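User: Could you check the structure of this?
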Amino acid sequence: MIGTAVGTAQEVDQALSSPKQVDPYFPASGDPRYRVHRYELTLDYRPGPNRLGGTARLSALAGPEALREFALDLADFRIGRVLVDGKAGHYTHRAGKLRIRPARPVAADAAFTVEVHYSGNPKPVRSQWGGLGWEELTDGALVASQPVGAPSWYPCNDRPADKASYQLSITTPSPYTVVTGGRLLTRTTRASSTTWVYEQSAPTSSYLVGVAIGAYEKVLLVDADPGAVPQTGYVPTGMVPHFATDFGRQPQMMRLFEELFGPYPFDGYAVVIADEELDVPVEAQAMAAFGTNHLDGARGSERLVAHELAHQWFGNSVTVADWRHIWLNEGLAKYSEWLWAERSGGRSAQAHAADAHRLLAGLPQDLKLADPGRKLMFDDRLYERGGLTVHALRTALGDDAFHRMLRDWATGRRGGVVTTADFTTHAQRYTARPLAELFDAWLYRPELPPLPGARAGWLRFGQESRPA
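Assistant: Sure, the predicted structure tokens are below.
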């Protein structure tokens, strides 16, 4: 929907194309000339007609140059009005970009607000990986936005490095439950509608704002323990027994990961079982969504339970500055699967590493882990090689230093954004042995290095690692 023409599309496009400021994998996403520090979304959703409407209020800060115009990412909605600091702004809206010219330029380094009123029928953003973002389900909706699906349902500065706090107020018909990451402030029912208000105070990337709307039964995974992280399941009726088994050890995982990675970084953790099959589970801030196919009553998907929980530290709290560094999310979450297996009576991390190495040895070796390219950023090889890279580092550091390194990384960078160079510099502080050759082989060269730890042997985590 096109509003008042501003004639600045070329200027905006030129600003967004600066190679030093935008994500090289998604140069059309986001606007680096400002940052958002808070979103307040007041939305109404009707599942039957798949109708979404409401208001998004963004509190932002201009960069070092005055803003004559700026851009938000937003899919194909009808725009009611756009206000900047309470005054009507001129705008155009096409090709997923809402370009705004305020009545007066925003001064350099100045705080400002943007208010967008919009409505329409949300649908996923098309991508090479399928639809991303708002997905209409048989009875309800689910949001899974990684990496660029957030504009499918709200206007945002869609850059992983632009983290903000969120308040979400979502009104739906009363039979439906609304789940999102964060603390539930209020739930108010009037007539046939219920409004759910959530607050997520921790810095959150736009792609990590998850929402699930459906008919769910609430399941508490943790008893009333003042020292435990609240963990809640939202499960389709009839699947609670399977859920109780398949997620029954998640509280133990939480305790282990807090031991290894430091305190859980959010107020609580919600797990949603969508009443549909999903190809893979999807993490969001303080939340993860699984499909009914991930429940079998026999813990058949427990490694995925560990993987998604680990993302709360690696990816959600400690977030990549841009998508070139995605191995930091997926490699550390993959390795967390192996750590959980090792500490819960399963196979050792060395055994998992050997399996991953055999798998990769038989596949094409054309992936550079530290910069896989947009085409390969979700390739299965990235996950496996990422886990192997972490294992190689553990082998080089020894268990005690590795444990301290990983915990310090997660706690010291909590709420922040990071790059591969940040991680390698951090790791080097935990050994006098130069790690440049290790990182060069595993991160920057496509050829598969030898299996780490194969010659030295391996002892259980928590013990000293030394040649057998």
